[in-house]
Amino acid sequence: MQQLREAIPSEHAYRFLIRDRDSIFSEQVDRDLRGFGLKILRTPIRAPKANAFCERLVGTMRRECLDWVIPLNEKHLRGILREWVTHYNRGRPHASLGPGIPEPTKNPPLCADCRRHELPETFQIRTKDVLGGLHHEYWLEKVAA
């Protein structure tokens, strides 16, 4: 409990504490943490992989973003992560989805005459830098006639 007191400042904006169901956390610890104004969220019962999903996301976030950017303060960090999460969900292909994106925003043009790797004549490739050029997003856009 002492370590938690030291880790959680008195003037905090935290709302939740996520913890596993280990026996080292007694009901007294939960009561004390509720006294800090925190809601205790326990990991699911008999779900050993639940933590693995969080660790996978945090690892990806670190490797693709935080290892390359130095946040100056908490506000800057939140802005960086907001931009990265948008890129992660809307602009970055995921291996588990083949070439797919979780939340696709632009549909590729359908061209009956085009071969697989040909650019349709009425379209051009557009690009957008993400996080100051750390990542890039590409899409096809119809050329104005």
Could you give a quick summary of the protein structure above?
The protein has 145 residues and is an alpha+beta fold.
Which SSEs are present, and which pair or pack?
Layout: H1 2-7, E1 16-19, H2 27-35, E2 39-42, H3 50-66, H4 74-90, E3 123-130, E4 135-142
Parallel strand pairs: 1-2
Antiparallel strand pairs: 3-4
Mean pLDDT: 81
The count of β-strands is: 4
Low-confidence stretches: none
H/E series:
HEHEHHEE
In percent, how helical is the residue content? Answer: 25-40%
Strand order of the largest sheet: 1-2
**Alpha-carbon distance between the termini?**
68 Å
Report the sheet-strand fraction.
Answer: 15-25%
Q: Structural class of the secondary elements?
A: alpha+beta
* Structure annotation, total helices: 4
> What characterizes the major β-sheet?
2 strands, parallel
The shape is elongated
Query: How many domains make up the 3D coordinates?
Result: 1
Using the CA coordinates, give the radius of gyration: 22 Å
Note down, in words, how this protein is organized.
The protein is elongated. The protein has one domain. The chain is of the alpha+beta class. The strands form 2 sheets. A two-stranded parallel ribbon has the order 1-2. It has a two-stranded antiparallel ribbon with strand order 3-4. It contains 4 helices and 4 strands. Strand 1, helix 2 and strand 2 form a beta-alpha-beta unit. The mean pLDDT is 81.
